[in-house]
Amino acid sequence: MSAAPSRVFIARLAGVAVFDPAGDQVGRVRDVVVALRLAPRPPRVLGLVVEVTSRRAVFVPITRVTLIEADAVVFDGRLNVRRFSKRESETLVIAELLDRTVRFRDSGEPVSVVDVAMEPTRTRDWLVGKVAVRRRRGRGLRKRGESIVVDWDTVEGFSTVEHGQGAAGLIAAFGQLKPADLAGVVHELPEKRRTEVALALADERLADVLEELPEDDQVEILGKLGVDRAARVLEAMGPDDAADLLGELPTEQREQLLTLMEPQEAAPLRRLLTYEEHSAGGLMTTDPVIVAPDATVAEALALIRRPDLNPALAAQVYVCRPPTATPTGQYLGTVHFQKLLREPPPTLVAGILDTELDPLRPTMSLEAVAMFLATYNLVAGAVVDENGHLLGSVTIDDVLDHLLPVDWRETLMDASADESADPEEEALRGNN
Known about the structure:
Layout: E1 8-9, E2 17-19, E3 25-35, E4 44-51, E5 57-61, E6 65-68, E7 72-75, E8 91-92, H1 93-97, E9 101-104, E10 110-120, E11 126-135, E12 147-151, E13 155-156, H2 168-173, H3 179-188, H4 191-200, H5 203-210, H6 215-224, H7 227-236, H8 239-247, H9 251-260, H10 263-272, H11 280-283, E14 290-291, H12 297-304, E15 316-320, E16 331-336, H13 337-342, H14 366-375, E17 380-384, E18 390-395, H15 396-403, H16 408-414, H17 423-430
Parallel strand pairs: 2-7, 14-15
Antiparallel strand pairs: 1-10, 2-3, 3-4, 3-8, 4-5, 6-7, 9-10, 9-13, 10-11, 11-12, 15-16, 17-18
């Protein structure tokens, strides 16, 4: 292998850009596939799992990798876009080995796996030769929590099933992924590992990931959290997504979770659950950007500038008389963000309202909402009741979510391509 380093720590490869021979980026490294062998033989590296377009994970044989650097991996030859599927004899290093508890063969001392290093051989193979571990207690002059790098054959326990395995290392490796991409990683983990990752994620991060997962995964993970934490995670989710998830649960479980939530968080979810799923009321979020008529352009811009705000929600500001929490006082109109950009900061939003568009009604059908947004080239629309109170906003992403097949997320994550198997890949993976 040309220009290859003598040792590569695998956790550091997560998210590294992958380039084809022409220099075009085709994706990013998600994981490394190895074949565990009988001790003391080190695992053989089979290849890389690379995430390409449409969140598809594909396999790149290690024999085709020609360059590994801190910020780039280059491969030679044709990229087979057949979706990667892990075989029973294979192990994913980042997803399955990080955070595992193993023991030193000589002393039996338990240590946690922090990273794993692969090294090239003279025959162009790559083997896992080193393990970075963290000690759990002091021993002699060594300090508690010390991390050291040891030979693979000095530790044991990689092939045993560990219950309660941590996930800090895996989460750190994928820390920079967007929620939708991390959801793809979580979806493909074994159920045991998926639960461990969910338990280790912070509430806000887990909420973001749940919103991107198929319904079956959402229900499964929520059931593993315990009711108190499940209620907190639901509070951190967008109201429309949380209501959709609650709608998938049995009535008794749903009511238990709503009771445990803060009343101000549970109230909008209860309202959303009263609407038909494919109506404007069932599609809307109850937390759009709302200001009073005496707010200035500068104040409105500050609200839509929040980094955690959905881009579709940030496209419009709704002006209502107090109270400005849904259901609001009298809805007065909408200010589009482009209008805000054109006006002086001290201008009052009440003077630049768009009042020509009739708002959506909560009972309008999905098709009617979609036609409304398409007709007026909007990415969001206000939902107002018969008394003129703003109830929420329907965004284009929620419309698309419901227009697509029910299982579109799962299909996207699981669909296999029709491409034929790669002979070199089959030879490599078939002779572990």
